[in-house]
Amino acid sequence: MNWQDISYLNSGSTIQKRAFKCLNKLQVFNLLAEYSPILTGTIPIGISIDSSDLDITCRFMDADKFERKMENLFRDQTDFKIQQKEKNGYWVVVASFTYQDFPFEIFGSLFPPTDQNSYRHMLIEHRILQLLGEDFKQKVIQLKKEGLKTEPAFAKLLKLEGDSYQQLLNMEGVTDSEILQHWNKS
Q1: What is the DSSP letter of 114?
Q2: Burial of 70: CB neighbours in 10 Å, binned 0-12, 13-18, 19+
Q3: pTM score, two decimals?
Q4: Helical packing angle, 176-185 and 150-158, nearest 10°
Q5: What is the pLDDT of residues 3-49, one digit of tens each?
């Protein structure tokens, strides 16, 4: 799967097709091209719920310049907010707004999008979904509808102890048979 080309959305679920049209109408990937944007989160991997947002992960070299760019591009969108903050020892910029009934969150940091946790989580979650199938997918979606965030839902179903976000990242090097063992324990 080439996650950097959002055309896969156009042959997906109803929400994925809507997201594809929305992203193209806003031209967000063209507008942010210099920041190597990648759509991450639950919509790309087909486990979104009604409240799911379009998460776009970007890389900047200058946080202030990126913040100004986000303000210039999106400040007129509904519920626009932006903040620059320190997270885990480095600066990030997070812009959020609503466009065509989709909540957006654009996250920028100094790290390439493919090294950022949201992308890494998505790849791990996609792998687990492919391995464990539709039953597991529906259980994740149900837990999300009950109020759990995505990573805690995966951790609960896989019986992962501790920080669910870190535990999921720890699954990067785990074999398929080890994932199946986690699932079969539950």
Answers
A1: G
A2: buried
A3: 0.93
A4: 80
A5: 999 999 999 999 999 999 999 999 999 999 999 999 999 999 999 99
Q: For residue 53, what are its two tokens?
A: 């947002």
Q: What angle do CA 87, 90, 96 make, to 5 degrees?
A: 55
pLDDT mean over 62-89: 95
Q: Which residues have CB under 8 Å from 84's CB, separation 6+? A: 63, 64, 67, 91, 92, 93
Alpha-helical (H) ranges within the chain are 14-26, 28-31, 63-74, 117-145, 150-158, 164-169, 176-185
DSSP conformational letter for 5: -
Nearest CA to 49 out of 126, 143, 117 is that of 143
Q: What's the one-letter identity of residue 47? A: I
Q: Give 160's Cβ-side CA count (13 Å radius).
A: 20
